[in-house]
Design goal:
mainly alpha, 84% helix, 0% strand
């Protein structure tokens, strides 16, 4: 009799745990945007736009430098200094590539 009651308690606890997990992981409730306050969304959009304005000049400068180097820098020159397997070629590639990235 005692084993039966222990099993029923264990089953009840596991059911409660499963029900709690299912309720907290309801994907349809998490996807609804109705609970987002308009003022909070507006602040988030303003912050995103401010970040975008700060980053854009650097992205454009990197694209300009990359485009100019692809158009006017001979491939043989790049291969000569950056094409090898030695440590110097890796350092030169990193010094040039990291700011462009």
């Amino acid at each position: 009799m005692a084993a039966t009651s222990c099993e029923s308690v264990a089953q009840e606890q596991s059911l409660n745990t499963c029900n709690t997990e299912n309720m907290s992981c309801d994907s349809s409730a998490a996807m609804v945007m109705d609970h987002v306050q308009p003022s909070r969304m507006r602040r988030a959009m303003k912050a995103a736009f401010a970040l975008f304005k700060r980053i854009v000049p650097y992205v454009l400068l990197g694209a300009l430098i990359s485009g100019l180097s692809a158009a006017y820098l001979p491939a043989e020159l790049v291969e000569k200094y950056v094409g090898g397997d030695d440590l110097g070629a890796i350092i030169i590639a990193a010094v040039i590539g990291v700011p462009l990235y």
